[in-house]
Amino acid sequence: MLEPLIGGLQNSSYTVTDVAGKRVARLGFDNAHLGTVQTSVLTSARAAAEIGISPEITYHEPNLFVMDFIEGRVLTEEEIAEPVLVGRIIDELLAPLHAGSYAVRDPAIYFDGFLCVRNHARYGLESGSPHRSRIPEVIEVIEAIEPVVEPYRPVFCHNDFAHVNVMLDRSDRLWLIDWDFGGFNHPLWDIAELCAYAVSDETLDRFVLEHSLGPLDEATMTQRLREHRAFKLASYLRQITWCILQDCEGSRSDEDAAHSMTRLFPYEEAEDSYEGFMELAWSRYRALWESCRNDY
């Protein structure tokens, strides 16, 4: 028996049930504008499974793979603002993930959030998006915040660390799913992206940095906070320009997009479309930018 799973915005997923049990089949295709490369997706998903933070891959062929089914649920925005659970996410998912380059056995993408936003913004301008009036500000802010990021050693990252990509199973184990953008990146990107969805305050930002990096003196904390907020801003700008891109060439029907957005933001009545998601991200970006723009 084959049943569609609602929620994926970059791919199509189905539950598959037969005499052997229940699994999930994922179907996806390369998209140059969105930056998805299916060989890299499979490489990342297999590596994450070997690390022990994602379901096992039981079958694969070009553009399709099948994985174990996890009985559980995805997290909510409210839950990822709770320090205890965020600490578990860092310890149980992010720490092994970022130490897991050994498990990457084939080529995987290098993800750059700043470049991603620039490319999405350029495409929005070139395609005549109805939202193109916002793009100059997006590009101006990206150019202002990127230089604060100091040299770093890239690590294996998820690069789409929304709350709906973190699952809690019936035995209280955390899992990380949906590897469309899995690859190498800055070690602070994933936690900053999770904090962006949590709309974290400075208290939570400081907590995640110290939990991830260990005790920091105030000068080092100040620099890490600048980087962390730059990544949070870039995450919001990525959400905004991703919605602009989807409005230009989205592969989902309006009904499918609405179902997916309801899953992403179940308590926000206005977010049942790409434009609704963009407006939410824009308001969050503006609030954060107004609070910290003098740091850039």
Quick structural gist:
By secondary structure, the chain is α+β, with helices and mostly antiparallel strands. 47% of the residues lie in helices and 16% in strands.
Q: Would you mind describing this structure in some detail?
A:
By secondary structure, this protein is an alpha+beta fold. The protein has one domain (72-295): Aminoglycoside 3'-phosphotransferase, Chain: A, domain 2. Helix content is 47%, strand content 16%. The chain has 9 helices and 11 strands. It has helices at 38-51, 83-98, 113-126, 135-145, 189-198, 202-213, 218-249, 254-264, 274-292, and strands spanning 2-5, 12-18, 21-27, 57-61, 64-68, 72-74, 109-110, 155-157, 166-169, 174-176, 183-185. A 5-stranded antiparallel beta sheet has the order 1-2-3-5-4, covered by helices on one side. Helix 3 runs parallel beside helix 7, helix 4 runs antiparallel to helix 7 and helix 7 (218-249) runs antiparallel to helix 9 (274-292). The longest helix has 32 residues, at 218-249.
